[in-house]
Amino acid sequence: MSYAAYAGGDAYEVPHGAAAAAPSGRFPVLKEVSTSSTVAWCPLRSHPALLAAGTVTGTIDDSFQTSSRLQIFDASLADPHQEMPLLGQAKVKDVDFVRLGWGKKGSSDGSYGLIAGGMSDGSVLFWNARDLIEGSHRAPVVAKRHAGPVAGLAFHPTEPNLIASGAEAELLIWDLKNPSSPTCSPYVHNSTDRSGIVDLAWNMKVPHILACSTSAGATNVWNLKEKRAIFSFHEASHRHISATAVAWDPSDARQLVVAYASPVAEVWDLRYALQPLVVLQNGHSRGSILTAAWSQHDSTIIVTSGEDAQTCMWNARDGSLLDSVKDPGTTFSMRWHPFNPELLATSTYEGKVAVRSLSNTGSHVPAWKGHPCGAIFGFGSRLVSFGNGRSPGAVRIHKVSTEPEFVRVASEFQDSVSRMSDLRALCALKMAQVGDDPDEQATWEFLQMSFEPDARARYLSRLGFAVPESARSPASSESEPPPPRGARPVQHPRIDEVSDEDFFTQLSRDEKSHEADPGRLSPTSNGPTSPSRSSSPTAARAPPAVEDDAEHMSPVDTSINNALVVGDLPGAARFCAKHDRMADALLIASLGDAALQAEIHALYIAQHRKHYIRSVAACVAGKDDMRAYVSRSDLGRWRETLALILTYAAPGDFVDIVRVLVDRLDRAGQANAAVTCC
């Protein structure tokens, strides 16, 4: 079929309803064709409906000859038929497609770009898309072969002359300046780590950064300017589970998602790479996640498919499951449409390539849909609203009728607010009115204590943590304690204030400056590795990635923990020394004054993994570390967490950090605890 039959870009703008049979249901199929293939969309705006498919297993044609095919289909929604017409194809003998990519190379001269196939024999083949559509039988350009099947293949998002391929432990960067004779640079052929590359992805913001995930569960971040890996991390369980897919956040250069041979995917932030930022779980029921795709049009949406034949849509920011659907087959490949944010091309092992609509995102409003309407209350019981009605640009003001009883109670409350003493009396009255409800009693009691001059001490006492008369927390004062004699504060820029380019440059510099350290982990070793956290201006101070033992504390642990919660640092340090916990004693003493440090100075320090060490280290280090600690603390111990905030939070940070705990309690359904913390 010649391309003259293709309707072109204008026809592609027809709404989804023009497709056949008005598909219904979640993630409906708008177009499909029977082939077991990996797919790639045309990257050109002039031809947005072209879809390439390369067969992943041998097929049998009319002459009963087994061969693989590269095919180009017309996925235009202007065609009322669901079956996608074939525009052109090329046969490939003796090898199958593993990966497929479509780049813009050559499109400036009116071509349709260049299609690259990563093959099962380790070769990379290149076709001119125009030759396939026009029926030319020109042979593909065969590039240098990898040692094994090509498991990763990706055109550069902004440099059409570059494409990366990965196989086994080898990463190659191809230069397509002369498409008939590609040249490559072997960026890595690691002889010590034989884990194979399973997928790779270019960073969408920083052009020389690329991520590779391996069969050992490691993900390596490469700086191609320096031709070396600058960062590495493993899946959180460190069980060496193979990775299956990797994709960068299109809006944040330092975040990426990695799927594994398990029902779990992880979103990592390279600024805090001791543990995943978000874990995508409880969506897939079993087996591996086979593919993951991060929406280029809404960075809050990630879609995954797995061996359980489930396709799941996730919120990338909080890990919540937006929607899931049971597929008729097992999807192993997915590609978002480069221009239409609602379209996703999928491939199944059962032999179906489909174009599906993801317009139904449940309660989540995707970025491309904007705000069709809105409303807000103003002063004087007025409601202001807008909407896409008969007059889309109009703003309407409504007078909202109120109940007299509600107005009376609100007026009384407003009068009480104007007099602080009346607020305490109002809380006492409410406690008397709620009867025997312990949750309501606690809510009003905590609210009453907030109006007392010594509110923090009263909170601690009510939470069950008595403050010794001799102990005064450094954080209980309205001013910050002076630093130890001779200490000079070190100013570092905040992580969020560092540009994407500077962030990866700093990673490279710190990695290079520590290469001679024999105790330092290499980019391919187990565990999360990065440049020295103590020297990097972009480093995040975070507690060690070890398991918290808060549920198994001994009586000695409990005594030390309680002393720390109320700020009794001298008592805690001396108690540790008394029970031969020298490492704990020295660390706690370092948080106190010079006299306490001198008292404990001679004691030996060894690493411990106790709950109280982790909590106090996070709380006294700074606002960001305390916020991080509260965001992952055990909600079953919310009282202790609140006490830590009361003790250590700076006055200016107190409300923000308490809000983190309140929001977590609210999302967990612990409404009474959340109200108490307010």
TrEMBL record:
<dbReference type="InterPro" id="IPR036322">
    <property type="entry name" value="WD40_repeat_dom_sf"/>
</dbReference>
<feature type="compositionally biased region" description="Low complexity">
    <location>
        <begin position="522"/>
        <end position="545"/>
    </location>
</feature>
<protein>
    <recommendedName>
        <fullName>Sec16 Sec23-binding domain-containing protein</fullName>
    </recommendedName>
</protein>
<dbReference type="GO" id="GO:0007029">
    <property type="term" value="P:endoplasmic reticulum organization"/>
</dbReference>
<keyword id="KW-0677">Repeat</keyword>
<keyword id="KW-0256">Endoplasmic reticulum</keyword>
<dbReference type="GO" id="GO:0070971">
    <property type="term" value="C:endoplasmic reticulum exit site"/>
</dbReference>
<dbReference type="GO" id="GO:0005198">
    <property type="term" value="F:structural molecule activity"/>
</dbReference>
<keyword id="KW-0813">Transport</keyword>
<keyword id="KW-0653">Protein transport</keyword>
<comment type="similarity">
    <text>Belongs to the WD repeat SEC31 family.</text>
</comment>
<dbReference type="InterPro" id="IPR040251">
    <property type="entry name" value="SEC31-like"/>
</dbReference>
<feature type="compositionally biased region" description="Low complexity">
    <location>
        <begin position="468"/>
        <end position="479"/>
    </location>
</feature>
<keyword id="KW-0931">ER-Golgi transport</keyword>
<feature type="region of interest" description="Disordered">
    <location>
        <begin position="508"/>
        <end position="554"/>
    </location>
</feature>
<keyword id="KW-0853">WD repeat</keyword>
<dbReference type="GO" id="GO:0030127">
    <property type="term" value="C:COPII vesicle coat"/>
</dbReference>
<feature type="region of interest" description="Disordered">
    <location>
        <begin position="468"/>
        <end position="496"/>
    </location>
</feature>
<feature type="domain" description="Sec16 Sec23-binding">
    <location>
        <begin position="560"/>
        <end position="677"/>
    </location>
</feature>
<feature type="repeat" description="WD">
    <location>
        <begin position="143"/>
        <end position="178"/>
    </location>
</feature>
<dbReference type="Pfam" id="PF12931">
    <property type="entry name" value="TPR_Sec16"/>
</dbReference>
<dbReference type="InterPro" id="IPR001680">
    <property type="entry name" value="WD40_rpt"/>
</dbReference>
<dbReference type="GO" id="GO:0090110">
    <property type="term" value="P:COPII-coated vesicle cargo loading"/>
</dbReference>
<dbReference type="InterPro" id="IPR024298">
    <property type="entry name" value="Sec16_Sec23-bd"/>
</dbReference>
<feature type="compositionally biased region" description="Basic and acidic residues">
    <location>
        <begin position="508"/>
        <end position="518"/>
    </location>
</feature>
<dbReference type="InterPro" id="IPR015943">
    <property type="entry name" value="WD40/YVTN_repeat-like_dom_sf"/>
</dbReference>
<dbReference type="GO" id="GO:0015031">
    <property type="term" value="P:protein transport"/>
</dbReference>
<dbReference type="Pfam" id="PF00400">
    <property type="entry name" value="WD40"/>
</dbReference>
